[in-house]
Design brief:
It contains 9 helices and 7 strands, in the order αααααβββββββαααα. By secondary structure, it is α+β, with helices and mostly antiparallel strands. Helix 2 packs across helix 4 and helix 5 packs antiparallel against helix 7.
């Protein structure tokens, strides 16, 4: 499903050059502003019309030296303390203290709400029921099992047709139709390509979303669709291959040997070559695990992220029910 694939492909790396995090009020690297021990005491002095540095025990009189990877000239506690002890920095000090106090109070309010929330009855974010959450939701577990079973069934059908019957897998030689030119000069040529990749790991029953039978009101949401992406090397160039559209359809459709639909979701790719036939079958079969595991990780990701209400609204449940009814699952 698109949402799972996008999350899986996104980079989770962070910059190693990021500076050490520090308190936005006093610049101490050992705590954050919401736990700063200086804010409330400084604010109390301001409210009494005193400048906090008039207290010899105030933190500005014994600031900590900068960390080795902190900038030596700004944004460390010594530099901040030097600024606040100077009368020209008192107005800034007051404003920063007020801002920090607001963050502390907001954090305390959040903590109080969280503590109060733990006393309430547990509510499941998936089914909306009480007394349990997503981790032990029986309805979510049952739905996961149904989708995984349907995925495994659909994958077996796809494997039988694409790999066993057609021999279409990585390494296959295929004939494709390539269109070029415009209007009256437009021509169609047949060329040979070598299949370099098919996104097998991303494919499941949501590669067929009944596009021809559904309108915009009851279509399956884009986030849940699983487009099939076939790539081939054609005349020195890597190209995405689309599937030809049957009569009375404006999108490609793969059907099995019995004419039952398998895939109707493909990436949009203007002027892409379209599949014509397999010239030389692939000798690279898929693993048995691809057939049986039913994309459990993807299914669990989706049901943890979206509620049953959302999946129903996005027509995932109706698609599943139609598939189960058709194939007696």
């Amino acid at each position: 499903m698109r949402v799972f694939n996008q999350a899986n492909n996104s980079s989770s790396s962070t910059r190693s050059s990021r500076r050490t995090a520090s308190c936005s009020y006093c610049s101490d690297v050992e705590h954050q502003v919401t736990s700063c021990p200086h804010v409330k005491g400084d604010w109390a002095m301001f409210q009494a019309f005193n400048i906090p540095c008039s207290d010899p025990n105030n933190w500005v009189h014994s600031p900590k030296p900068p960390e080795s990877n902190q900038n030596q000239y700004w944004n460390n506690q010594q530099a901040v303390a030097r600024h606040y002890k100077n009368p020209s920095g008192w107005s800034t000090w007051y404003a920063e203290c007020e801002k920090a106090l607001g963050k502390i109070q907001a954090a305390e309010q959040r903590a109080a709400k969280a503590k109060d929330k733990t006393k309430r009855v547990k509510t499941c974010g998936f089914c909306g029921g009480t007394g349990h959450n997503r981790r032990d939701c029986p309805e979510m577990a049952a739905l996961n099992e149904r989708i995984i079973k349907a995925n495994a069934h659909w994958r077996q059908r796809l494997y039988t047709h694409m790999v066993e019957n057609l021999g279409l897998c990585e390494g296959a030689l295929v004939k494709v139709k390539v269109e070029s030119g415009h209007w009256n000069n437009r021509k169609v040529e047949q060329k040979i390509g070598l299949v370099t990749s098919i996104n097998w790991s991303e494919l499941n029953m949501f590669s067929y979303v009944e596009k021809n039978a559904r309108n915009w009101r009851n279509s399956v949401h884009d986030n849940l669709q699983a487009p099939m992406v076939i790539k081939a090397h054609i005349e020195g160039e890597d190209r995405t291959i689309l599937w030809p559209s049957p009569p009375n359809r404006n999108a490609g459709l793969i059907c099995d040997a019995q004419g039952e639909p398998l895939v109707d979701v493909f990436p949009y790719n203007y002027n892409a070559p379209t599949f014509a036939s397999v010239v030389s079958p692939s000798e690279t079969p898929l693993s048995a695990e691809w057939l049986t595991q039913g994309q459990a990780e993807c299914v669990e990701f989706v049901t943890k992220r979206y509620s049953l209400e959302k999946l129903t609204k996005w027509n995932a449940i109706s698609l599943l029910e139609n598939y189960e009814q058709k194939w007696g699952l």
